[in-house]
Design goal:
Elements (H helix, E strand, L loop, with lengths): L8 H8 L2 H12 L4 H8 L3 H13 L3 E6 L2 E6 L7 H12 L4 H12 L9
Antiparallel strand pairs: 1-2
Helix pairs in contact: 1-5, 2-6, 3-6
Length: 119
Amino acid sequence: MASQNTPTIADLFQAAADDNRLRLLKCLQVRPACVCELVQATGLPQPRISRHLRVLRDAGLVCDCRDAQWVQYCLVRPQQSSAEEAVLSLIASLLEDDEQVLADRRRLADASREQCVTA
């Protein structure tokens, strides 16, 4: 991929070209979430989610911020007419009726940090 600050359009599509990463992007449309909440929503293992989030972050599609001991992930707020905005809009429109995505989003709405195991 290109440098973290300048992903190419190919980088954006490569990052979005995975079913699990698409599921994570759709979950993050509901609200920002930490990895453990995304585990609850998708049923995917934590290491896999972390790896996918890193790919999405490197492509400029998600960002992370620290909230006490938690790291929250959220969709980027792309500048108007940006490639990131176009990719996120395309994903949003293509997956609205996907059964797996709808189920993930319902589970994320019910997920909470209190259910997360802290080490």
